[in-house]
Predict the 3D structure of the following.
Amino acid sequence: MSSHFYVKCLDCGLEAPYAPLAINCPRCNGEWREARYDYPNVKETFLTKLQSRPYNLWRYHELLPIHTPYPEISLGEGGTPLIKAINLGTMLGCSNLYIKDERQGPTASFKDRQAAVTIASLKEAGITEAVIASTGNVAIAYSAYAARAGIKLWAFLTSLVPAEKMREVAIYGTQVVKVTSSYDQAKQVAAEFARQRGLYLDRGTRSIPSVEGMKTIAYEIAERLGLRLQPAPELNGGPIRWQAPDWYIQAVSGGLGPVGVQKGFAELYQMGLIDKIPAIAAIQTEGCSPMVQAWQKKEKTAQPVHSPRTHIATLSTGDPGRTYTLLQERMLQGGGGIFESVSDEEAFRTMHVLAKMEGLSVEPAAAVAFAGLIKLLRTGKIKPHDTIVVNCSGHTMAIEPIILGKGWARNVVLPSQASYETPEEGLLAALSRVTADRYPKVLIIDDTPEARRLILRIMQSQGNYTLMEATNGREGLDLANRQRPDLIILDLMMPEMDGFAVLDQLKANPDTASIPVIVVTAKELTAQEKERLSGQIESLLQKGSFMDNELLGEIRTLVK
Ligand SMILES: *Cc1c(COP(=O)(O)O)cnc(C)c1O
Ligand SMILES: [Zn+2]
């Protein structure tokens, strides 16, 4: 069969046709091979035909190792939105922070891309039974597509995988095999099982369709970022202008995602569609960070972590094998990047931040990428003005108790009806116990809507306050006089009447002089200005450099 692609051996360079079951290189027997395409031809297609195609990953079918352009098994994978981070962006001082919301795939993680392309490829090859090992999401995604393709699937899961995820795998009709061991050991058991039975075994980064599925994330990011810069290209009559971000950030376990995404950007660069390959930030958990350790020691091979210490099962690949070697080499040759780790606790806290600030409920693994972003901004490795895309890689199946802690719900216990004249009376009495009569009043004076929205959101999502807003100094002063708030959060740079003037007047009036004030400002203060504020305010926070819990901490010490 003539084909629009072929595979190239990474070891001996041999170019050969692709056959899903012929895994090794015919010349050197190597296992590491990659798909190649007719890039100059594809470039023309990309520039002209894409605009009329549906927004899912098959729109790029000329660069996928599948012969049917739109396979029947598709569930509409890919085409996930690129969302601008509004509150989180403001909080971190990043004006170009985007979230690739991979939770919106058919099985709620970015593994859908890998599964869709791989299962389509297996179906084209007539394969009807397959074996995978998984930390959870691969098994879920493969199971959904295997169901549509008529492929019997065996999923070997480490016992660390949360029970909810295991049951999700089972409902698709996959045979779940729970292996009481680490993920790396579960992989070995699966490989042995497949070998004995002569079944197809998924090989992660060495599986050509899997890498190809993942690279579509890069295409979508570059295409959508370009559209944001140049909306409605059809009106200008011009082709879409593609645009690479400065950073792509992802939580990493086995590393298939970044390997695929790196290849995707490299292909776009080769075709001249983007002018650079982005830097990649690969984030691991501290308890299972073989890649980070190797990177910090400038080693090309990662030493396996034999007993991962993390609650985040999704990211528990202890032995990344050659994937790390390949990834770091390509990062160094391409746009650069970094490997970094964060603790489980940082990830759990970031889950709250994402849900409360951006409306995104994510699984702990996805939060690891965002916790990494925060760390890299704080250490100056990523600059706030950089264009950053974070892969929001998966949705949480069920919030485990460890993430929420105590006190997240209030109870309403209805007394028996007999003790009240009417049922309504009983209900109202019960509800009155849910809320206090009076919450501390907090006045926010800031002329920037984004800043007001962020502070408001932080306070409404994590406490009970009566919140008031003023959009300039004069209005703020007026509200302070009439309402006597328990606390004022004040901006400094405002038109008409600035924060310094507001402060002078508050302090000059005995009725408002004792109201505590937190200044939140974007201004770099001079020594003279700091002098002016000293003794007048309780606290000073720099916009874009404090997190929600830091602001709340200040507030809670000032108002009870
Ligand atoms: C698999 C997975 C990761 C890690 O991805 P790799 O590219 O395989 O290292 C991160 N987050 C989620 C939600 C995942 O399912
Ligand atoms: Zn070879």
